[in-house]
Amino acid sequence: LNRWEEIPLIVRSSSVLEDSFGATFSGIYRSIFLANRGTLEQRLHDLTGAISEIYAGVFSPDAIAYRRRHNLLDHDERMGVMIQPVVGKEYGRYFFPAVAGVAFSRNDFRWNKRIRREDGLMRLVLGLGTHAVDRVGDFARMVPLKAPTMRPEGTAEEIAATSQKRVDVLDLEEESFHSIAAGEALEVLRPEGIADYVSIAAPGGHLKTPIGLRVQEPADQLLVTFDKLLTRGHFPERLSGILQTLEEAYRVPVDFEFVHQDDKVHVLQCRPLTGSEDTARRPVPADVPARNQVFSAHRWISTAVVENIAFIVLVEPRDYAQIESVDHRLEVGKIVAKLNESLAEKRFLLMGPGRWGSQDLRLGVRVGFADLSHAAALIEIARMQHGLTPEPSFGTHFFQELVEASIPYLPLYPDQAGVVYNEHVLLGAENVLAEHVPD
């Protein structure tokens, strides 16, 4: 602490099994940010508390369920602790990097035939990279590295709806981790220049890229798009080069977390990208009557086959949306966890609203990996809410946990044209919840 003085710190896990081939523990163990301000005694108290919390992570329910799923319960798992300075700058009361994210050397989320799997993918955010890898109720910019200007959204309205709304920062005054409005973050960044990060909402619903270095428009007319940063091309090229170098060294596909600050790319963490091999395609039967088709999907599909399904665990999105009590919404997650254990020896699909595992209870059921570890597949039903469709979980730590556990994942958009979603097949089936969770 004397050596680093009052630079913000992050205390991270570094266990024996973590980031190993086939079991990276992505998102299982915590990382804790410290503002590292105040007297030496206070800073020492905060640091030792964080170290204790990280060290105890090997006993968490998610970690135990993860080791059980990967047949690692009998392996010697011990926790080491890594302390890093947080890369970023001080902007008034806040500390954060301008740009951060996570990059993958394989892209399993191709929405256009021009996008190749081997070209890689990047999730890009303003502020701390937690926003790119954690389950938050917001959006990150998805960037295919060899076609960085290509977006999954087709209209200016869709781009505006899916632009980043919140920014993760360290609040140095309150000495805590915070999420602030994107507009507030842009205002504190404005003196250094924000042209690389924003697009301007012009009259008529059009978007325009800033021409010069300075942006005069007020924050409520700005969208976080990174269009100018990506158009110049050298930043995506640098990320591609780093991925190629790391993949050659690891000899397997990789992903890494990074910060882009003052034209430097800081590699914060790298891990093998396991479970990412293509599965042989199976033809979809053409003779299934429409009335017997439960659902169809056309976006963000990874190839997988799930057979011999005995049960479907459904959290009906409209019913869930009507729950006003926070305690009752949390109770839904607890019931899912009980079903996960009750049906552990069965083959079941888990279907539910928005973002499974989201910290925002309005967008999805809050569960940990241990609460759904036995599911044969996970379907996120992304219904339109207040004019917005929740962003699915691809690319997050949560998604990586599913990939490693060989739990196929599928986002379902029932409000989109051409999508089959025959609710009557599900809602008309016998409800056997009481048999498996009697209480």
Question: What's the topology here?
Answer:
Blueprint: E1 9-15, E2 31-34, H1 40-55, H2 61-69, E3 79-85, E4 89-91, E5 94-96, E6 99-104, E7 121-126, H3 130-133, E8 141-144, H4 156-161, E9 166-171, E10 176-181, H5 182-189, E11 198-202, E12 206-208, E13 222-224, H6 227-231, H7 234-250, E14 254-261, E15 264-272, E16 311-314, H8 317-321, H9 326-342, E17 348-353, E18 377-381, H10 397-404, E19 409-412, H11 423-427, H12 433-436
Parallel strand pairs: 16-17, 17-18, 18-19
Antiparallel strand pairs: 1-2, 1-3, 4-5, 5-9, 6-7, 6-14, 7-8, 9-10, 11-12, 11-13, 14-15
Q: Give the helix proportion (percent range).
A: 10-25%
| Poorly predicted tracts of residues | none
What is the alpha-carbon Rg in Å? 22 Å
- Total helical elements: 12
Question: What's the β-strand tally?
Answer: 19
Class based on secondary structure composition and strand pairing: alpha+beta
Separation of the first and last Cα atoms: 51 Å
Q: Enumerate the strands of the largest sheet in spatial order, edge to edge or round the barrel.
A: 8-7-6-14-15
User: How is the biggest beta sheet arranged?
Assistant: 5 strands, antiparallel
- Beta strand %: 15-25%
- Envelope shape: globular
Whole-number mean pLDDT? 85
Could you describe the 3D structure shown?
This protein has 439 residues and is α+β, with helices and mostly antiparallel strands. 24% of the residues lie in helices and 23% in strands. It contains twelve helices and 19 strands. It has helices at residues 40-55, 61-69, 130-133, 156-161, 182-189, 227-231, 234-250, 317-321, 326-342, 397-404, 423-427, 433-436, and strands at 9-15, 31-34, 79-85, 89-91, 94-96, 99-104, 121-126, 141-144, 166-171, 176-181, 198-202, 206-208, 222-224, 254-261, 264-272, 311-314, 348-353, 377-381, 409-412. The strands form five sheets. Strands 8-7-6-14-15 form a five-stranded antiparallel beta sheet. A four-stranded antiparallel beta sheet has the order 4-5-9-10. It has a four-stranded parallel beta sheet with strand order 16-17-18-19.
